[in-house]
Design brief:
The protein has helices spanning 56-63, 120-125, 127-130, 134-156, 197-205, 243-262, 274-281, 298-301, 307-310, 328-339, 369-379, 394-411, 457-460, 489-498, 503-517, 531-538, 569-574; strands at 18-30, 34-41, 44-51, 70-79, 92-103, 160-161, 179-181, 189-191, 210-218, 230-239, 269-273, 295-296, 314-320, 349-353, 359-361, 386-392, 422-426, 431-434, 439-442, 469-474, 477-484, 524-530. It is of the alpha+beta class and 582 residues long. The structure holds aspartic acid (ASP).
Length: 582
């Protein structure tokens, strides 16, 4: 080895030792008689000391070294006179006797510090320099730990990690596929997997009754902040299970990761139906770190002469505790906030329950104090609280109020990244009607089974059928989702029919699965977790990019290797992709 110790390792006990360190020059300080260099590697920083009086040549040499030079130094560990309690190695320094420049470096385009001066795009272009920064490296360490603990836990539970292919077959359901042209088979294409869904189900037919895989998936979706065209799932499937068996197995994984990675022991998982999640939180992934549940005011507020409420399908509100002292300006600003196109509410009604017990509302003309007191009771509001009310078409109003609830939660400091609220959302609708296509789409995917008690509705009222599907939600983030699958091929064929597939189309696209189901498919179900997202959540960040070593930017480009990029005409020819006549 070119070193005897790392830069994060030496302590007071090591004083007097002769050591060799290697690393990057983080920073140097020239104090006239003395020069100090902080040497950095993956493990930390160690201060190197050079004394002009005792070794002028070496000191001069040290002064000539630039940032990010790769150095090897030999020297003796000494106690520092000026200790730095903020650094693990802050009690010692190395009195250097020899420096070898292993490699000089150009000045980096941004400072390699915790608070760097480099903007996003620049850091992505030089991601290998960005990763030298503690915060980015720590994120990769967290990701590694998550992966190791996931493998340990699932393997201990009897899950087998099986790799599934990356070059597969395109299916038009779900998101858009990335296609890979075949050179050998002219005019034919592979697709990159959006998930190993059908393969894991085939593994269940194959008798591998507990499968998992930490696996790359690919979706060619439209650009949105914090979307990556390639991302990683913890993909899982189990045979001979009911929904509750699956939920329990993966609560176990959740608890294990909380304990091993976050050191948190007291995690529990609540359950809520999709219908209740929408009704009380206006979201299918509610943030339950705080309450502020919706209160339906239809019975109390309609037919009292206020047109806006009377015309609405739903009048619904939240109670913001302690906000009765909001000023006119704050309320106007909140009204503008809900009116933004992203939120889409027409207006906002407020009722202040003043500290002295009186009411002041934006609808005082229509409702007297006794009526408002009735509302306050429904909200469980106390003097000092502020009730915020929206009205309109049910779905849109619930969603808008859901956004307002999150915003108020944020403003009131109720969304602490170090508090965790875990939840299963269950009983999603099986199908979603698409106005444009005039057909149903599977809300989860076409292999999800209906709840047994709703199965008969599939022929009569498909829109009403609830799915045996579930999402794991932590702090308002959808961490994973899955379902109990259809394992009876006649029901699977029926499902394709409801989704508008002709029997030939179903056979063409999914024949391999339908056929396999004829050879003894066990009842099965599973789930897939967004691994990048889970890492980001545990790392206290909103951005999955921070937890991917070499991510793509918001325009789906890798700006470091400059991809996607044009290719040689010769390559296009081999792939039969060149337009004839060019
Ligand atoms: N394959 C599904 C997905 O990627 C998850 C599952 O149903 O297991 O969303």
């Amino acid at each position: 080895m070119l070193r005897t110790h790392t830069c994060g390792e030496l302590r007071l006990e090591d004083v007097g030792k002769e050591v060799v360190l290697a690393g990057w020059l983080q920073r140097s300080r020239d104090l006239g008689g003395m020069t100090f260099i902080d040497l950095r590697d993956r493990y930390g920083l160690t201060q190197l000391a050079f004394n002009m009086e005792t070794n002028a040549t070496l000191c001069e040499q040290a002064r000539g070294l630039g940032r990010e030079y790769v150095l090897q130094v030999r020297g003796a560990v000494a106690e520092r006179s000026n200790k730095n309690p903020k650094m693990p190695t802050g009690d010692i320094e190395i009195i250097v006797s020899e420096i070898v420049v292993l490699n000089p470096a150009q000045t980096p385009p941004f400072t390699i510090e915790e608070n760097t001066d480099g903007g996003d795009e620049l850091r992505m272009k030089y991601r290998y320099l960005d990763i030298r920064r503690n915060s980015v490296r720590r994120n990769l360490e967290l990701r590694h730990k998550m992966a190791v603990e996931t493998r340990n836990y699932l393997s201990d539970q009897g899950f087998l990690e099986v790799e599934t292919p990356v070059l597969i077959k395109s299916t038009p359901e779900g998101a858009r596929d990335f296609l890979v042209p075949s050179r050998i088979h002219e005019g034919q294409f592979y697709a990159l997997p959006q998930s190993p869904q059908t393969f894991k189900q085939l593994l269940m037919v194959a008798g591998i009754d507990r499968y998992f895989q930490i696996v790359k998936c690919f979706r060619d979706e439209d650009l949105r902040a914090d979307r990556q065209p390639e991302f990683t799932q913890i993909d899982c499937e189990m045979s001979f299970v009911t929904r509750d068996d699956v939920l329990e197995a993966f609560e176990g994984l959740g608890k294990h990761l909380f304990k091993k990675v976050k050191g948190i022991d007291n995690i529990s998982f609540d359950r809520i139906s999709y219908a209740d999640a929408m009704k009380y939180y206006g979201s299918d992934k509610p943030d339950t770190r705080f309450g502020m549940r919706f209160v339906d005011l239809n019975a109390l507020a309609q037919n009292k002469g206020f047109q806006v409420f009377d015309d609405a399908e739903l009048v619904v509100g939240i109670n913001a505790e302690g906000c009765a002292d909001y000023t006119r300006k704050q309320l106007d600003e909140l009204t503008d906030w809900v009116r933004r196109p992203q939120i889409g509410a027409k207006g906002l009604v407020y009722v202040k329950y003043n500290a002295d017990g009186s009411f002041k509302s934006s609808v005082d003309k229509f409702f007297d104090a006794a009526q408002l007191a009735g509302w306050a009771e429904a909200f469980g509001a106390r003097p000092g609280d502020l009730m915020l009310i929206l009205a309109g078409e049910t779905n849109a109003t619930q969603k808008a109020l859901g956004e307002l609830r999150l915003e108020m939660g944020k403003r009131l400091g109720l969304r602490d990244p170090n508090t965790f609220a875990c939840l299963w959302v269950v009983e999603f609708p099986l199908l979603e009607w698409d106005e444009e296509a005039q057909r149903f789409f599977a809300m989860h995917h076409p292999f999800t089974s209906p709840l047994p008690e709703d199965a008969a509705l599939l022929s009569t009222d498909p829109g009403k059928v609830r799915a045996n599907a579930y999402d794991m939600v932590i702090n308002g983030v959808e961490i994973g989702g899955g379902s109990i699958r259809i394992f009876d091929w006649t029901l699977q064929e029926k499902m394709f029919e409801v989704l508008g597939f002709s029997p030939e189309e179903a056979q063409n696209q999914f024949g391999f699965l339908l056929n396999a189901f004829r050879y003894g498919a066990p009842p099965h179900g599973g789930i897939a977790f967004g691994f990048d997202r889970w890492c980001a959540l545990f790392g206290g960040s909103d951005s999955i990019r921070d937890f991917i070593a070499f991510p793509k930017n918001n325009a789906a480009r890798d700006v470091m290797i400059d991809s996607p990029s044009p290719v040689d005409v010769k390559q296009l020819d081999e792939l039969h992709l060149r337009l004839k006549g060019l």
